[in-house]
Amino acid sequence: MVLHFDRLRHLERLGKPLDLEALLGGSSVYLSLSGLDCGNCAARVREALLSLDGVWLVRVFLWERVALVAFDPERVEVGQLLAAVAEAANDGIHSFRAEVKETRLARETLRISGGKPWWSWPAPCPSDCPGAWS
């Protein structure tokens, strides 16, 4: 098991109350991102995803251009996640895009430690982003 720590902790200010049991009963998706240039871009994508009803947890790895999203598949569809990423670039300057690389059950990708969820995407990790997995 590999734990994935967010290098940009300052982007983790916003959040939603978590029901850990519901979280582990949901789904998770690995998104490849394009168009992100800075921490502000990553924060905009994260906030856009978290604003969706049914999205519980988001981690954006800016340098690797990756987002990991835990969500309730009965309340939000993957297509809505992709649309939220695109809509996060609503300033007429940026253009964000997301592509689904892998979807799994959240219990396969998250571990609870100290009452907090940690991403632990199981091996083999998606091959196009080795820098996100340390």
Write up this protein.
- The protein is α+β, with helices and mostly antiparallel strands.
- Helices cover 23% and strands 28% of the residues.
- The chain is built from four helices and six strands, in the order αβαββαβαββ.
- The strands form two sheets. It has a four-stranded antiparallel β-sheet. Strands 5-6 form a two-stranded antiparallel sheet.
- α2 (39-50) crosses α3 (78-87).
- The termini are close together.
- Residues 1-13 and 130-134 have low confidence and may be disordered.
- It comes from Thermus scotoductus.
Architecture blueprint of SSEs:
Layout: H1 20-24, E1 27-34, H2 39-50, E2 55-61, E3 66-71, H3 78-87, E4 97-105, H4 106-109, E5 110-113, E6 116-119
Antiparallel strand pairs: 1-3, 1-4, 2-3, 5-6
Task: Write out key terms for the chains shown.
134 residues, alpha+beta, Alpha-Beta Plaits, 4-stranded antiparallel sheet, two-stranded antiparallel ribbon, 4 helices, 6 strands, disordered N terminus, disordered C terminus
Write a concise synopsis of the structure shown.
The chain has 134 residues and is an alpha+beta fold. The protein has helices at 20-24, 39-50, 78-87, 106-109; strands spanning 27-34, 55-61, 66-71, 97-105, 110-113, 116-119.
Number of E-type strands: 6
Structural class based on helices, strands and sheet pairing: alpha+beta
Give the count of helical stretches: 4
* CATH third-tier fold name of the domain at 20-109: Alpha-Beta Plaits
Approximate strand percentage: 25-35%
Question: Topology as H/E string?
Answer: HEHEEHEHEE
Low-confidence stretches: 1-13, 130-134
Q: What would you say the CATH architecture of the domain at 20-109 is?
A: 2-Layer Sandwich
Tell me about the largest β-sheet: 4 strands, antiparallel
Strand order of the main beta sheet, please? 2-3-1-4
What would the principal axes of the Cα set say about the shape?
globular
Helix fraction? 10-25%
Q: Round the Cα radius of gyration to an integer and report it.
A: 14 Å
- What is the CA-CA span between the terminal residues? 10 Å
Taking all residues together, what is the mean pLDDT?
81
